[in-house]
Amino acid sequence: MNSPSLLVAGGRWRCFPVPLKSLLFQTLHNSCCGEKSTATNKITPNIAFCDENTKECGNELDKLLSSEQQATILHVLNTASDKELEAFKLLHGRKSINIVQYREKFGPFQNLESLMNLPLFQYKTIIQICNSILCPETRGKKRKSQENQLLGKLLRPDIGRERLKAVNSIISIVFGTRRIAWAHLDCKLIVLDWQQDECCGLLKGTYPSSVYLEVISSVISKMPKADFYILEKTGLSTQNSSLFPILLHFHIIEAMLYALLNKTFVQDGQHQVLSRNRNAVGKHFELMITDTWTSGKELVKQFLSESVLKAEPWVFFPLDKVVRYRQMFSSTEQNRVEELYDSLLPAIAFYELAVFDSKP
Fold it and tell me: Which class does domain 6-134 fall in?
């Protein structure tokens, strides 16, 4: 008889009819349906036994898993595409690509120990991946409410999880009193575009709407197309009357961006522009001191350096643009151009918090 036919869709396994005596099918069936079986027990890593990236870690994996569990996991790793692999915890971005590239170069995985040879794969990470493959249903149900709560705090208006999972690229936009900056990232965390535009004259005079329209339209014309546009939610207090002109300035820009970028909203009612919570992003990157956001300059500088020095950086800047980005970054260091730094971090946080399962 043929082996089980398995498809991954949205993190759920769909099993086509096959003989129940198939060991692989039975293991997967028990995992999905929650039946009592030794194959569905959660794997508990023996962290005290080994350190990461050692031979002992690979051997420990075999001791933690039964032969049935190993067969189930290896079947997924050897047959699923990179997109299908992304349905599982931590197998997003470069990790899923690394698995497919390994198969193409060396053939199917013969054991789980081989995962230790891949970039970005460490012992504790592999344990989480194995648990996610063995118990996809349990993982999905347990995390759904947590994800909804997190998204509610991070983004407005509410957007369905499936739409967020399907994004190919986003643009994060940050605006201040003197400039507007934006960063364009795809779902592999590749920086496609990153720049800023001066608009220091908008606060002068009597806030003419026509000038705002002209300036914001000019800025938008320079932005590439994306699935979503993420704006920073204005956080100034309305209690301080001296800040009213600045607060009004921010609200006008925000309204202009919402109207001009939501081009198809009248036809389909689908939001393409979202407001993000500044504090949620700051806490994610540990940039908050009490309720104050500190500069993200050093973190952005680290991402730039790692893109050049590491073979598998978490955030990837294309080599043909790295020099220009580093020069742009260096020219702004003395002038505290926080909009430029802040535009990149929310884009990364969007994928890590709203699309991916977690940071690496």
Answer: mainly alpha
DSSP-H helix ranges across 236-318: 244-261, 265-268, 278-284, 297-309
Q: pLDDT digit string (tens) for 247-269?
A: 888 888 889 999 999 988 888 88
Cα separation, 68 vs 74, in Å, equals: 10
Beta bridge partners of 289: 292
Do the beta carbons of residue 111 and residue 70 sit within 8 Å? yes
The backbone region for 312, taken as left when phi is positive above 0, alpha when psi lies in -120 to 50, beta otherwise, is: beta
| pLDDT at residue 38 in the model | 41
**φ, ψ of residue 331 in degrees (nearest 5):** -70, -15
The half-sphere exposure of 72 on its side-chain side, counting CA atoms within 13 A, is 28
Separation CA 86–CA 83 (nearest Å): 5
- Can you say whether the dihedral through the CA atoms of 246, 248, 249, 254 is positive or negative? positive
Count CB-CB contacts under 10 A for residue 177: 14
Cα(318)–Cα(308) distance, rounded to whole angstroms?
9
Enumerate the domain spans of the chain.
Answer: 6-134, 151-355
Residue 260 has a pLDDT of 93
CA distance linking residue 357 with residue 147, whole number of Å: 9
Residue 237 has pLDDT above 50, yes or no: yes
Q: Is the pLDDT of residue 354 over 50?
A: yes
Residue 313: cis peptide before it, omega within 30 degrees of 0: no
Query: Taking a C-beta distance cutoff of 8 angstroms, is the pair 70, 62 a contact?
Result: yes
- The DSSP string of 249-260 is HHHHHHHHHHHH
Mean pLDDT for the stretch of residues 208-228: 90
- In CATH, what is the architecture of 151-355? 2-Layer Sandwich (3.30)
> Cα separation of 340 and 296, whole Å?
10
